[in-house]
Amino acid sequence: MSRLIAIGGSKGIGNAIVTSLLSSYDEVINISRTEPEQKHDNLKHYSCDILTDELPEFDSVDALVYCPGSINLKPINRLSIDDFKNDFDINVIGAVKAIQHYLPALKKGNKPSILLFSTVASKLGMPFHASVAASKSAVEGLTKSLGAELAPTIRVNAIAPTVTNTELASKLLRNDRMVEKMNERHPLNKFLQPEEVADMAAFLLSNKAASLSGQIFEMDCGIVSFKI
Questions:
Q1: Residue ranges of the domains in the chain?
Q2: pLDDT tens-digit map of 42-62
């Protein structure tokens, strides 16, 4: 039985990934605090806080996607040490906990793969992003280190999206003027929809990406790559 585990697959990008891959796996496991709205014969939900609760056990896992993230944008003088700790916990420690827990099951999977998430702010210096950029930069280091350590058995990659139209980013896109400004900031005159990120995730988890590991894929709509 092919099995995908999505940590945080009830909302935003995680939900888009779960939805797009329901027909690609015999079983899709969503582990999150919130139950997803969609129902499907292949979908099972486990209510769980990744940082505090015990994770469910499975005998084998073919794909692990860690989706939780944070957008905690403040000037450095308003960021507390707890802000940094909280962002690091959700972005890094949660991912490490999930990977360590499911590593034995992944090793029994069929061409297993792990997918993590970074941000364009790890490459492009952006005001007010100190905490999230620090934690997501750690995710990129984790991706590369584990890609090397787990080769050739398990592939490990990460996607670094720009602003994506999700609930998490709603404060950045809360009116038409802000949407227009966000489009103008990107050379491709657009930002991301979660379905676009889900398409990239599906590719990276598939055998079509069998030669890719330890890579960070910037879905940036040109904001990091171009100066126009």
A1: 3-219
A2: 999 999 999 999 999 999 999
Per the CATH hierarchy, to which homologous superfamily does domain 3-219 belong? NAD(P)-binding Rossmann-like Domain (3.40.50.720)
Per residue in 137-182, pLDDT (tens digit) is 999 999 999 999 999 999 999 999 998 988 777 777 888 888 898 8
Model pLDDT for residues 66-79, shown as the tens digit of each residue: 999 888 889 999 99
Q: Which two tokens stand for residue 132?
A: 């999230």
